[in-house]
Every structure is written in structure tokens, then in C-alpha cells.
Amino acid sequence: MICAIIVSYNSDKVFRCFESIKAQADFIIIVDNATKDKNIILKLKQLANQNNKYKIVFNDENFGIGHALNQGFEIAKKLNAFWVITLDCDSQMPKDTILNVMKSYQKLPADIKNKTGLIALNFIDINLVQNFVKTKNENGFKQVKYALTSGNIIKMSAFEKTGCFNENLFIDQVDNDFDFRLRRKGFLILESCDNFILHELGQSQKKFGIVIKNYSPIRRYYLSRNCIYILKTYFCFDPYLCLKLFLRGVGGGFIKVLFLENDKYEKISKIMEGIFDGLRGRFGKKYNP
User: Same domain, yes or no, for 233 and 110?
Assistant: First the structure.
């Protein structure tokens, strides 16, 4: 059985995501993190009544991405799901993607299949899909060290051995933390060379050839704080990747804010606050995004 988990938060794009995956999964779980829009909630309730293969979980508070995913996996486990697809609500799964990925996976050598804990998809901007270029690989996959949450196809047995998503991180770096633990348990992370997931990158833009994501001050806080956590926790396991994520998430973020983004003072203040909290070991939910 293949289950899909969609984490929803204050966006009607969840229905577009649902439509893109409903024919590709055997069961769909939507976990709503306390959406305020009553129209969205009403539509989600109506959706739950349409089919017994749809399950909607309504949280009365935003407990973060890790908590929502863990709720979904708990349900998927009871359904004896073999694979679980994780999706952000602003993502879309192109037609027959899962079918094509599974066909390629079945052709892999047995030892590779047994070691695979997660299959990731290429992650591209919905507005740039025409620029997608397939990567040449005879097996249809390449081995990677980490993958963004949306579009992950996770083997349930690997999830059970690795452990739940880290709820103390709230948002940002939740995926990287899971991937580090997955690899530490000896599992492989494969990325499909031929398939992709569409994701809307919000307010991202390019300036002087540099991609500017324009994260909010609160997102800057969590990103910098949780990069500190990754650095402290996994440096001995993979120092190169830890430093890369830290320099990109904190150092790169600081430079982009300072020279290319608006609201510089507030964002830099939140970056520094995140660094200090990370160094002092203060995690969990602090701000609601």
C-alpha cells in the first residue's frame, strides 16, 4: 500500500495538491495545522466525507511540520502502508509519477532496494517546469545525502528504524535531520533522475543571478536556529555537509538579507536570535509563522 500525507496550513492550494496525488496513492491523509480560513476547513470536511480512503486530521494548534508528519505516519502504519509519500500543500505531483518511480525502483539490484529508505524527486519551481532536464543515469536514480520533505517516498520500515521526525525543530531542517538519521542507520537516499515534483517557491526571485527566497523574519529565525542544531548534532557524522548547510542557511542567508532583501534589521535580528537560541539549546515552537 502507498499512502500520501499532505500537511496543510492556511492555503487552499492543498486541494490542488490533493487532486494531483489522489489517483496515485491508495490512501490520502491530510493533516491540517490549525488553518484559520473557515472555507478551507469546510472544504476539507466535505472532502473527508467523499471517500473512505481519505482521512483528514484537524489540529487545534500549529504544532509544526514534524508533528504533522508523525501524525500521518501513525495512521499510515495502522493501514500497513509499505511506502509513504510526504507532500507540502503547495506542491503538485505530475501524472503517473509514482507509477514511473516504482517501475524504475523494481529494476534495481536487490541489495540496493533493500538498503533504500527514501526515494526523492527532483524539486523544481512550478513556473520553470519547461526547463527541467533529465539527469543521465543507467539505473534511473542517483544517490544523494539529503532531500527536501515534499515529494519524498519513504519506506515505512526505514521510518520505524530511524524514528519519528524531530518535533522540536518545528519548521526548517526537519527534513535534513531525518535524512542524517536515516543515513546513520545505514539506509540509502535515492533521487529519481527522470521524475520531478512541482513546487511553488512563493516570493522567490533572481537578483544578479542569485535566487532570493525572501523568507519572513520568523522563517529566518527557525532556519538559523535549526542549522545550529544540525551542526552540533551531526558534525562528527558528516562534517562537510553540516558546514555546507550551515554556511548556506545562516551565512548565505545573512549576506542575502544584508545586501538584497528588504526588512534587513528585523531579519538580521531574528537570525542572531536563532543562532543564540541554537547555541543555548532552546528549541521547540517559539513563533507561529
Answer: no
- Pick from 226, 225, 219, 224: nearest CA to 263: 219
Round to whole Å and give the CA distance between 35 and 58: 9
Contact indicator for 3, 84 with CB cutoff of 8 Å: yes
Provide CB contacts within 8 A for 103, sequence distance 6+.
none
Residue 117 falls inside a structural domain: yes
Look up the pTM and report it.
Answer: 0.93
The verdict on 134 and 194 lying in the same domain is: yes
Q: What is the pLDDT of residues 98-133, one digit of tens each?
A: 999 999 999 999 999 999 999 999 888 766 554 455
* Cα–Cα distance, 14 to 227 (Å, whole number): 28
In a domain, 67, yes or no: yes
What range defines the domain where residue 268 resides?
A: 205-279
Residues 232 and 245: beta-carbon distance below 8 Å: no
Judge whether 176 lies within some domain: yes
